[in-house]
Amino acid sequence: MSHLRLQDVLAVLEQTFPLDSAQSWDRVGLVTGDPEQPVRRIHAAVDPTLAVIEEAREAGADLLVTHHPLLLRGVHSVATTSAKGAAVTSLVVGDVALYVAHTNADVAEPGVNTALATACGLTTSEPLSVEEGRPMGRVGDLDEPVTLADFASGLAAALPWAPAGVRVSGPPDAHVRRVALLGGAGDGLLDAAAAAGADVYVTSDLRHHPVLEAREEATSRGGTPFVVDAGHWATESLWLREMLERLVGSLAAAGHDVMGLDTHVSTICTDPWTFTVGARPLQGDPQ
User: Fold this and answer.
1) What is the pLDDT of residue 66?
2) Rounded distance between C-alpha atoms, residue 207 and residue 187, angstroms
């Protein structure tokens, strides 16, 4: 039986993902829970949805660590008549602490974006851009050039399956080597990817007009960077298992008894899309 207290876990999380490394608009750290409560099971997920919280409660979790905040914007009520209120109530009634590591986990090394870099096939990478004095995204070179189609297929295989799949803008037979990336929503760094000389930019939540403009601007550079929208949930979920393994290792290194500590990554896909219709397969792919 683990004798860990929440405060012990918080100390490691805040050393690994410092609160002051988050963006100024972000809301990270402890949301619910008592620092003195015991921690025997830690659950991890991208989003603190009602289904994820119920899954954590049913699993007997004492702590739920999520990437996305539950209370990013101000609320005036936590009554169960709203989804946010129902989530807070479920956490409190279930005695489940909630901890959020968001943009401070994005910039960490290792963190959300280094996990995505590995999925992209990069063995080394560096920050793509700097905002508020903090590195954003990653950029690096593949060991060998590959076609855009093979790159996208390899990335899709490395990511957890999501209903919307992977969308690609660019000719399938184009060769790519330099890869820029940003887990989560990233059309704000399209220019940074181009400035970094990327052949392909991997991110998610790409909007029509920014991508269309960026692709037209790319014509003078031979069409690069090509663009891959790999899904918000998928690109950020890769980090969860790595985070838990590092957390347990750090707790053990700090002298805590982790023999009775159990960890689990949520099996729930919180991508809001559930199915697609009419997508045209890549030429040569099975129908």
Assistant:
1) 98
2) 7
Average pLDDT, the chain: 95
Following DSSP, what letter does each residue of the chain receive, concatenated?
Answer: ----BHHHHHHHHHHHS-GGGS-TT---EEEE--TTSB-SEEEEES---HHHHHHHHHTT-SEEEESS-S--S--S---TTSHHHHHHHHHHHTT-EEEE--HHHHSSSSSHHHHHHHHTT-SS-EEEEEETTEEEEEEEEEEEEEEHHHHHHHHHHHSPP-TT--EEES-TT-EEEEEEEEEEE-GGGHHHHHHTT-SEEEEE---HHHHHHHHHHGGGGTTPSEEEE--HHHHHHTHHHHHHHHHHHHHHHTT---TT-EEEE------S-----SPPPPTTS--
CA dihedral over 152, 154, 158, 164, signed as positive or negative: positive
Domain 107-230, what fold? 3.40.1390
Please report where in the chains the tokens 């980090």 appear, as a residue. 239
The answer to whether residues 16 and 108 touch, using CB atoms and an 8 Å cutoff, is: yes
- Which pLDDT does position 97 carry in this prediction? 98
Binding-site annotation, residues for a divalent metal cation: 67-68, 106, 232, 236
In the chain, domain spans: 6-102+236-265, 107-230
- pLDDT higher than threshold 80 for residue 30: yes
pLDDT of residue 253: 96
Chain length of the chain: 287
Interval 137-188: pLDDT, tens: 999 999 999 999 999 999 999 999 999 999 999 999 999 999 999 999 999 9
Tell me the average pLDDT across 193-205: 98
Domains 6-102+236-265 and 107-230 share a fold: yes
Per-residue pLDDT band for 1 (boundaries 50, 70, 90) equals very low
**Residue list for the binding site:** 67-68, 106, 232, 236
